[in-house]
Amino acid sequence: MNLALAPETLARWQFGITTVYHFLFVPLTISLAALTAGIQTAWVRTGKEKYLRATKFWGKLFLINIAMGVVTGIVQEFQFGMNWSDYSRFVGDIFGAPLAFEALIAFFFESTFIGLWIFGWDKLPKKIHLACIWMVSIGTILSAYFILAANSWMQHPVGYRIDKERGRAELTDFWQVLTQNTALTQFFHTMTAAFLVGGAFMVGISAFHLARRKHIPIMRASLRLGLITLIIAGLGTAISGDLLGKVMFKQQPMKMAAAEALWDGEAPAPFSIFAYGDVEKGHNTVAIEVPGLLSFLANDDFDSYVPGINDVNKAEQEKFGPGDYRPNIPVAYWGFRWMIGFGMASLGIGMLGLWLTRKKFMLSPGLRTGEDEVPNLVLFKRKALSPRLGKWYWIIALWTMAFPLIANSWGWIFTEMGRQPWVVYGVLRTRDAVSPGVSQGEVLTSMIVFTALYAILAVIEVKLLVKYVKAGPPELTEDDLNPPTRIGGDSRDPDRPMAFSY
């Protein structure tokens, strides 16, 4: 190991570990808030008890997840001062602005209404209480937008100038930072990917209960909602990914070339299915490709020219000076494929599940429907599929919960690793962004501590989720079925303790 680079390498590992871990909670928080709000809306509109029980069930899982997300997210802020002080000093004027908006507007907004929603079940009228969870959902989406705007500026810096005397970047157009096409397309792609996570989460847990023949009316409705969410989000992710890819090609041609292991520019350029090569020599020894597809994905033209890794590296050497401007090619190449593969697998499972349940759940002949416990439940259209296939679908659906999480994680790894050696593309290199006074031992110690802490939190998170998933939807009380019609409660005892549903 090159000891001179060790603090940078360790700092990158630490940030990567904590960021990927934190982002396991973010998409589920965003999507589960909106899905819970949708289910509660169904209860307010129809008055059906199954929707109220479903709201409390999914809401409890949402609260467990968001609590972990907040805890792990705080660490992200510390690292900018701990390991990346030169980065913070150079771009803090710009990068800090959207993060400040995220905290002051979105996070506090979200926190206020989540408190009202938690404690307001027996204090607020149904519609006002419903509005609270919708405000929480809006808050999570606003938080994501401001954070993505900050990250998009790192991918494509705009609206700034360099003050050479002070040696730092300064903000000149905050509106441009918030509305540039990189931020808009990345936001669209991240939101659809987030709902892919939420849809799969709902499908997997519903499948778990239905396979055990438990809580059938509630889980049947939840499964259908999850499947529809999976399909809409999956299609949206594919469309938004295509748009983001075109923006990426124009702004970061090296990332596009690395994602396809395209070493030398071609017209038309092929899309790589599988490639194996020599990174040092800059060529592939094995390549399975679809002719012209990369040209279309980059330019909407099957015959257009796409520059390769060697071409872009040479161009950046001429522009920025001597050096190797290539990212880690294997990570970029395979990360891109894992992202697409697991994302599209989730979409396919959603389509299969929606087709299998297209005419409700078909039960074995002679069994009554409407009961919460129905023996021999199978998921198939009568005379179309075997019960065995139905059983296998439950198992696949349960494991599908992990697929979008893997896709999201590899998507962010590709996004950040594909930008290297830049921390701010074309402006600041990663090696120049680390804290100069932090030693290898200090970074290693903090990385070990954070990783161990996150491992403990992971165990707590999983145990809590498993506990409440197995418990299933709660039984309803009289207060649940008769919420107040005015703020503060009706004629019930005003001095009774405030209910805390979770």
Task: Describe this entry's structure for a reader.
With 502 residues, the chain is mainly alpha-helical. The protein has 16 helices and 6 strands. It has helices at 6-23, 26-46, 49-82, 85-119, 126-155, 174-179, 181-211, 216-251, 253-260, 293-299, 309-320, 329-356, 387-399, 402-417, 440-471, 478-481, and strands at residues 160-163, 168-171, 271-278, 283-290, 422-424, 428-429. The strands form 3 sheets. Strands 1-2 form a two-stranded antiparallel ribbon. Helix 3 (49-82) packs parallel to helix 8.
Poorly predicted regions are 1-5, 361-387, 497-502
Rg estimate, integer Å: 25 Å
Seen as an oligomer or otherwise, the chain set is: single chain
Largest sheet data: 2 strands, antiparallel
Arithmetic mean of pLDDT: 83
What string gives the helices and strands in order? HHHHHEEHHHHEEHHHHHEEHH
* Helical residues, percent: 55-70%
Q: Got a strand count?
A: 6
Biggest sheet strand order reads: 1-2
Dominant shape = globular
- Output the number of helix runs: 16
First-to-last CA distance: 50 Å
Strand content: 5-15%
Derived structural class = mainly alpha
